[in-house]
């Protein structure tokens, strides 16, 4: 990939580093391993969700159902562990199968019925939220010794930071996603479809398989995020994670991925997540600011990044025009 | 003579109410460039679509290297050996050159895409096509000509026997065309059979060995180009001798001063200029690509608002900052790119024709259906627009007919000043002559016209005056007997000497 496509990624990275340095200058305690470890733990479920969202947005689509899928996953796990004696690992496998299948089904509808992803996943959002209500309207606590064991696993870094298994899972997801997007044909096809679905098809990209795969990845990762979320809260609640899909979209866009598809990096999404987490941490440290400031700053950042993309778009067009003009003259 | 690499026989294709192809034969030999010629609607595109499987044919056989084939779709025909490259580059601008070349067949290493090998092989492949470019850069960072060559490289690497080039030069300038031709020569040397479709007869003679001419879905002749003249080819295409569009007869005197522009311009778009346009006058805008022809047209019509200078319409001061204001003052503009700026593809021909008239009336006063029908019918007849029904979507018309329908749209508003930007681009010879005749006719009726065109012969034929542009400023004006292609070229070049 050339310099110009990586520029938004570098800008996101620079924004994060700058923000972190500024925060640490004001509150030196923010530069501790404790804060870094919490940043990973607190944002693990959102981070994993955003990976799936990156696939979807890179292909030019959108997935509004992920917040509901996380809630459904939580309630499903809580209820099944309360009412039956199956092992959590089996329950995990089962719920991942359901959510992946659910994503694949949405992908299939989007492709074969030629429906806009917005509408299909909006329907999916209501469907999954409704299913979660059907299972239980109340918050169901999860008490299982396997859960206790998973939650007790951590690596204590010097400085007191506890790096937990959920944070590691998120990092692993990002590494896996990078490999899939840049090193497999499926990944290349995601970019191709995002560039122009019609052209991609003319060039032999299996459009049906790829679209279904993309939404299956998003659904499956939302399921994984749901599992992580139950490890984080020890409960399943049908009203949880409302609006998380929008946070995930925000992280992807702040990470430099074009909403129109075809251009962006999953690494950018990672820093998008970290920037959003950092703002929250800063507000906690400050203590006087209302937590709504998180939303305001994220809103401002989103706007700034959209303007930036627009500006880069103009710059590229101008450069090409110049290039063509000089070609013509020579 | 060797065996033909591709031999299509008795190809027929029927559309509801029309025979698109009737018993067409096409034989391609290895190492030849074979031009496919015909007016718009003669069946060139349909034939290509039948050969590549985009359409299923209703009759006939296709043999490739002696074996009969039946491609299901363009991908299938590509796998069999027939590659196609279109005017619009069908590659992905957001991927790198190498990724575009190898999409779907990336070199793999341990189950992973081997980017390094892909880049290296892409560089080697492109070197065969005379391109020394960095394959790791985005396709969109290169000019259209280079993108076109990358598309050709991909098609040839995937197919390797027959290459179909469908109007590849339509959006290229002179130097880029030469670059493309050098690639075609190389491929010819490699023994490929190449089908070349274009509207530019000069290019046909420059690069092709043989030509098959289609008219109304039938083959009217296959010729070795070394043996025939341009006139003969054109006569075959039209089925009649072409009236030479030459300069020129007595012109009626221009009428009253209509529009007067003083120091009119827009920074970064077109340098300030003076212009007077009278009724019954055609002002030609001449110049090279990017010299400011379209920019002049756009600033007069308010597509980009002028930021300096004054305008007067019939002696009264006038301000035009938007096309709406221009339309209200009875201006009309037929833009250069009819596909993106002109036609609304999915609307019917009738709706497209009355669009501007309706827009001027305001949407709260819809034109009655019967009246719309009448207007559309009138112009379809007056301009000889060939169509099956007024209700068909305009995108189904051929290029020349789309252009005429666009003209009809603006004529329906009965403008006093008609601005035409490249009115004859991408349309066939027959429609070309008709549009030129139409321009003359409108002038005779007292309309004022501004016509921007890259075809100098054409400008010479109908212009009362010619404004010559260079580097986005006016560099000269030719009137009366000064007007000739030679003097235009001199006016363009004069600045160079200075």
Automatic annotation (TrEMBL), chain A:
Matching Pfam families: BPD_transp_2 (PF02653)
TM regions (residue ranges): 55-81, 88-112, 118-135, 163-181, 212-232, 292-309
Membrane topology (UniProt): Multi-pass membrane protein
Database matches in InterPro entries: ABC_transp_permease
Location(s), subcellular: Cell membrane
CDD domains recorded: TM_PBP1_transp_AraH_like
Top-rank taxon: Bacteria
Keyword Ion transport: no
Keywords: Cell membrane, Membrane, Transmembrane, Transmembrane helix
Main location class: membrane
Secretion signal span: none
Keyword flag Chaperone: no
The protein's name in its UniProt record: Sugar ABC transporter permease YjfF
Originating organism: Salipiger mangrovisoli
GN (gene name): yjfF
Automatic annotation (TrEMBL), chain B:
Protein origin, superkingdom: Bacteria
PROSITE patterns in alphabetical order: ABC_TRANSPORTER_1, ABC_TRANSPORTER_2
Gene3D superfamilies: P-loop containing nucleotide triphosphate hydrolases
All residue ranges annotated as the ABC transporter domain in the record: 6-241, 252-496
Pfam annotation, one family: ABC_tran
InterPro entries in UniProt: AAA+_ATPase (IPR003593), ABC_carbohydrate_import_ATPase (IPR050107), ABC_transporter-like_ATP-bd (IPR003439), ABC_transporter-like_CS (IPR017871), P-loop_NTPase (IPR027417)
SMART domains: AAA
GO MF terms held by the record: ATP binding
Keywords: ATP-binding, Nucleotide-binding, Repeat, Sugar transport, Transport
PANTHER family: CARBOHYDRATE TRANSPORT ATP-BINDING PROTEIN MG119-RELATED, GALACTOFURANOSE TRANSPORTER ATP-BINDING PROTEIN YTFR
Name this protein carries in UniProt: Sugar ABC transporter ATP-binding protein
Organism of origin: Salipiger mangrovisoli
């Amino acid at each position: 990939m050339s310099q110009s496509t990586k520029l938004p990624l570098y800008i996101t990275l620079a924004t994060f580093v700058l923000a972190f340095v500024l925060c640490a200058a004001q509150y030196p305690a923010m530069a501790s391993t404790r804060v870094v470890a919490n940043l990973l733990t607190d944002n693990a479920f959102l981070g994993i969700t955003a990976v799936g969202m990156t696939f979807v947005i890179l292909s030019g689509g959108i997935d509004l159902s992920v917040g509901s899928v996380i809630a459904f996953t939580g309630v499903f796990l809580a209820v099944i562990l309360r009412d039956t004696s199956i092992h959590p690992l089996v329950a995990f496998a089962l719920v991942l199968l359901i959510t992946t299948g659910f994503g694949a089904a949405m992908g299939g509808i989007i492709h074969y019925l030629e429906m806009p992803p917005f509408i299909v996943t909006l329907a999916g959002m209501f469907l999954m939220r409704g299913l979660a209500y059907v299972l239980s309207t109340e918050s169901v606590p999860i008490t299982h010794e396997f859960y206790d064991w998973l939650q007790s696993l951590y690596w204590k870094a010097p400085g007191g930071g506890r790096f937990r298994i959920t944070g590691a899972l998120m990092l692993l997801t990002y590494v896996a996603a990078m490999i899939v997007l840049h090193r497999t044909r499926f990944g290349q096809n995601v970019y191709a479809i995002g560039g122009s679905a019609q052209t991609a098809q003319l060039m032999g990209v299996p459009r049906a398989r790829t679209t279904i795969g993309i939404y299956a990845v998003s659904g499956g990762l939302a399921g994984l995020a749901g599992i992580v979320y139950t490890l984080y809260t020890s409960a399943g609640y049908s009203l949880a994670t409302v609006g998380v899909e929008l946070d995930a979209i925000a992280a992807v866009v702040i990470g430099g991925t074009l909403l129109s598809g075809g251009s962006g990096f999953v690494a950018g999404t990672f820093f998008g997540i970290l920037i959003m987490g950092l703002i929250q941490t800063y507000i906690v440290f400050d203590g006087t600011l209302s937590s709504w400031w998180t939303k305001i700053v994220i809103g401002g950042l989103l706007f700034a990044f959209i303007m930036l993309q627009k500006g880069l778009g103009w710059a590229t067009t101008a450069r090409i025009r110049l290039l063509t003009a000089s070609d013509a003259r020579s | 003579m060797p065996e033909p690499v591709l031999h299509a026989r008795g190809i027929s294709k029927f559309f509801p109410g029309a025979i698109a192809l009737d018993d067409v034969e096409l034989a391609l030999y290895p190492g030849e460039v074979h031009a496919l010629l015909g007016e718009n609607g003669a069946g060139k595109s349909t034939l290509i679509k039948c050969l590549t499987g985009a359409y299923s044919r209703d009759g006939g056989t296709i043999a490739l290297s002696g074996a009969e084939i039946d491609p299901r779709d363009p991908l299938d025909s590509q796998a069999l050996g027939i590659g196609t490259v279109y005017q619009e580059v069908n590659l992905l601008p957001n991927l790198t050159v190498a990724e575009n070349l190898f999409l779907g067949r990336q070199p793999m290493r341990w189950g992973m895409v081997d980017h390094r090998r892909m880049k290296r092989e892409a560089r080697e492949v492109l070197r065969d096509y005379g391109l020394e470019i960095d394959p790791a850069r985005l396709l969109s960072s290169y000019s259209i000509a280079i993108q076109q060559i990358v598309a050709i490289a991909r098609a040839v690497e995937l197919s390797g026997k027959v290459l179909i080039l469908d109007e590849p030069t339509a959006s290229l300038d002179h130097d880029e065309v030469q670059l493309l031709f050098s690639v075609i020569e190389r491929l010819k040397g490699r023994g490929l059979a190449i089908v070349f479709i274009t509207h530019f007869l000069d290019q046909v003679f420059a690069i092709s060995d043989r030509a098959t001419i289609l008219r109304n879905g039938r083959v009217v002749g296959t010729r070795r180009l070394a043996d025939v003249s341009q006139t003969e080819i054109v006569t075959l295409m039209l089925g009649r001798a072409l009236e030479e569009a030459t300069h020129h007869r007595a012109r009626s005197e221009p009428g009253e001063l209509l529009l007067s522009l003083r120091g009119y311009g827009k920074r970064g778009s077109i340098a300030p200029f003076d212009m007077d346009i009278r009724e019954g006058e055609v002002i030609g805008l001449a110049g090279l690509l990017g010299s400011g022809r379209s920019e002049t047209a756009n600033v007069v019509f308010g597509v980009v608002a002028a930021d300096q200078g004054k305008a007067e319409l019939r002696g009264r001061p006038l301000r035009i900052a938007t096309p709406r204001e221009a339309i209200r003052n009875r201006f009309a503009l037929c833009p250069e790119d009819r596909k993106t700026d002109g036609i609304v593809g999915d609307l019917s021909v009738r709706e497209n024709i009355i669009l501007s008239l309706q827009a001027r009336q305001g949407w709260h006063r819809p034109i009655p259906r019967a009246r719309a029908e009448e207007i559309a019918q009138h112009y379809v007849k007056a301009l000889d627009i060939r169509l099956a029904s007024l209700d068909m979507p305009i995108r189904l018309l051929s290029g020349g007919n789309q252009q005429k329908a666009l003209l009809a749209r603006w004529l329906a508003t009965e403008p006093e000043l008609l601005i035409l930007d490249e009115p004859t681009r991408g349309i066939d010879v027959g429609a070309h002559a008709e549009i030129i005749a139409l321009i003359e006719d409108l002038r005779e009726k007292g309309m004022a016209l501004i016509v921007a065109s890259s075809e100098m012969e054409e400008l010479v034929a109908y212009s009362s005056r010619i404004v010559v542009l260079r580097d986005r400023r006016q560099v000269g004006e030719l009137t009366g007997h000064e007007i000739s292609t030679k003097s235009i070229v001199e006016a363009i070049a004069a600045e160079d000497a200075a």
